[in-house]
Specification:
single chain
Amino acid sequence: MFGLDFGFSVLLLLCLFCVCAFEFINGFHDTANAVATVIYTNSMKPWHAVLLSGILNGLGVFVGGTTVAMGIINMLPVETLVDQVTVHSLGMVAAILLTAIFWNLGTWLLSIPASSSHTLVGAILGVGIAYSLLPGTGEAAVNWHKAGEVGLSLLISPLFGFVLALSLMSLLSMLFRRSENLFRSPEGDAPPPTWIRCVLISTCGLVSFSHGSNDGQKGIGLMMLILIGIVPAKFALDDRIPKENLTVTVRAVEESFQSAVADPAAAPFREVLEAAKEPITELMSIATSDSESGVAPQSPAFEIRKSILLIRNQTKQLAAIGEIEKTPSVKAFYKNCEALKKHTDYSPTWVIVLIALSLGVGTMIGWKRIVVTIGEKIGKTHLTYAQGASAEIVAASTIAASTYLGLPVSTTHVLSSGIAGSMFASGGVRNLERSMITKILMAWVLTFPVCVTMSGTLFLLFRYLFG
């Protein structure tokens, strides 16, 4: 397989299986977020809802792109990502995967809604922190800026879900105060009125699709880490793009760099530009040649990827300095450097298919535990049509916005907090089931420290045993 010997082929297959297992568990763990409302309002039969959710989750993976996947990967610093020792890469990914699977499976068995995003982010941070404890690494082993962005997204999203669902319920109360059907609970097995049923089924589909487009990318990111770590010659760069295109882009980067360095107006950016000089020189030497084709046919893909990541790591700081628009030479250099990412920020179609199938099939299995919690145990009264629609609309819009911004978000926390907000709007604190709310909050609080500690410990253990 990919030119590997038998041992590494088995190891690669095992690692890929673990990523699929993570997404499979993610599917049945998070299914409840989409289907609980349509099931508990009698809008759809359970298996019909789960089947629809599974298909749309898988479809969402195909449409979602790779922005969130790259955001997850980039939480680890470039120094960690360009460590070409295969055992080190495998130890890193194994620690992340084992931690994520353990926590997701454990909270599912306890019927507690928990965030796969929180779990994965905590595991990645744990590895980064552990890496910083190794000799010669230091604080650079944790990309705190990116971690801060992701952490803020995960922190704000459930609060946003609660407040927005509360506001939406209040708005519905004012606009449809005479529509008693909207604010009542289902009677027996009778379905809701047709228009309400259409709204609930549509929002269920939107949450499922949004969940796939966001959460599916996390599995894509993990799988790419494995492929690049074990088979760098094949997957470090997108081989679907002709090497001639890379040569053209690299030369454009080098020319614009020289223009920026020579520009007196670029003085505020001088320090960052100088830091980018070495990886640009290295990239020029390995990605171009004087051959007739202009391409070095045996260019080591991983070394090219390493140089690209180092360059982009420096040029990101140009935008952070500010006023880049006022310096055309620096802006042109930045734009050319950003064009390099199409060679590194990608995923093969078969990877997307595997993740989509794992998430979609997982969605159709093991869904009932969390569905009961979402539908029955967050509030003290039965879910009304308005409450279900409000929570689903909030969840779908929040997840879609986060995917557009390239940030991971907790589907579980957004929707469960949306349910809580809609229940609060209908009866205040007395309408919330405090014991379950406490359990969900405890899982929310404990996820980070548990996953950081476990993944960091596993990573250091693997480095000690196999490094």
